[in-house]
Amino acid sequence: MPTRFRKVKIDDTAYEACSVFDVNNDGVLDIVSGAFWYEGPDFQKKHPICEVQAIGGYHDDFSDFPMDVDGDGWTDIITASYWSPTVRWRKNPGVTGEEWQTFDIGPSVCNETVRFFDIDGCGIPEIFSNAVHDPQQYFKLIVDENGRGTGQFETIVIGESAAMHGMGFADINGDGRTDIILANGWLEQPEDPSQRPWKFHAEFDMGLASVPMLGHDVNGDGLMDIIVGQGHDYGLHWLEQRIDENGARSWIKHEIDMTASQFHDMQMVDIDGDGELELVTGKRYRAHNDGDPGAFDDIGIYYYKIRDGAFEKHIIDYGPAGEASGCGIYFWVQDITGNGFPDIVAPGKDGLYLFENLGNDEKEA
């Protein structure tokens, strides 16, 4: 039985990123999106963070990731956008209503969005910007002797050529180390973490790929496959990894869903509580304003159950913009209500929405 959701509109804002964390340290989760945070548990009380610049139909904020950057016990925000020459962090002042100060982390030109992954196992996620026209790099938080953030970062460049549009994390070759998926190949994490650059394998061409692309063994053959959406066109696909008798790797492209466009963000989540991961994604409404194929189509959020290489689509929300919601460039999935099912916070140019996961009758029974 499909999982049911209750849709709640939080605000009419047009920011495309969000996150969930305890902003004011009261023990209750809050929602952050763009220039504001919304106080839990009902998210009706709205507080300013700082001014976020509007640029050509977008906002200068393509992520709102939570991290205590300076080790003061208050969770800060990591942000960047396509136009910003740097990745930045906003300092949580610890006082509601006081403006958050913004500081540079490091340079990142033409940054489509930012993703976070603990690539070296240190316990703190590293910051990966999808720097479309620059070599892949990441920023590592420098901590003190007690493991607390110092507000300073180390820049580590692991690629040699332009990263292109698209990025993800997966152990492609099964060696136990997470690699970096890019639009036209993958960067192999070396055994020696000090080795630079990482070896690049130019094995496919994903086009204007989603951020992230996802690693998942779709058909259960023990090899890591790749799930990718077209960020600025129609199409959701998976690439099947094959290894021949000589150990050579190849990829076979399969269609998942060709009925929708602008699949920009996606996550693997056990959305229905059955112990299996589902693909959760949707349309980034007006991703290139009105310049993409399918820009004027209805928008929606979906989850796909995966069974032996087949994807079964379930609609969470679908319809005209203003009635239905897409999922922006950086949506958030977390059990906010405490019922054991992950909820979805969906930002976008169509507004900020919360989809409360009500589970399904079969699970609840």
How would you describe the overall organization of this protein?
- By secondary structure, the chain is mainly β.
- It has one domain: Methylamine Dehydrogenase, Chain H (7 Propeller), CATH 2.130.10.
- The protein has 1 helix and 30 strands.
- The strands form 7 sheets. It has an 8-stranded mixed β-sheet with strand order 19-18-17-16-20-21-22-23, with no helix packed on it. The chain has a 4-stranded antiparallel β-sheet with strand order 1-30-29-28. It has a 4-stranded antiparallel β-sheet with strand order 2-3-4-5, with no helix packed on it.
- A hairpin with a 4-residue loop joins strand 21 and strand 22.
- It is globular.
- The termini are close together.
- The relative contact order is 0.14.
How are the SSEs ordered, and which strands pair?
Blueprint: E1 4-11, E2 19-21, E3 30-33, E4 36-39, E5 45-48, E6 54-55, E7 58-59, E8 65-67, E9 76-79, E10 86-91, E11 101-107, E12 111-117, E13 126-131, E14 135-143, E15 149-162, E16 167-170, E17 179-182, E18 185-188, E19 199-201, E20 213-216, E21 225-229, E22 234-243, E23 249-261, E24 263-269, E25 278-283, E26 299-307, E27 310-319, E28 332-334, E29 343-346, E30 352-359, H1 361-364
Parallel strand pairs: 16-20
Antiparallel strand pairs: 1-30, 2-3, 3-4, 4-5, 6-7, 8-9, 9-10, 10-11, 12-13, 13-14, 14-15, 16-17, 17-18, 18-19, 20-21, 21-22, 22-23, 24-25, 25-26, 26-27, 28-29, 29-30
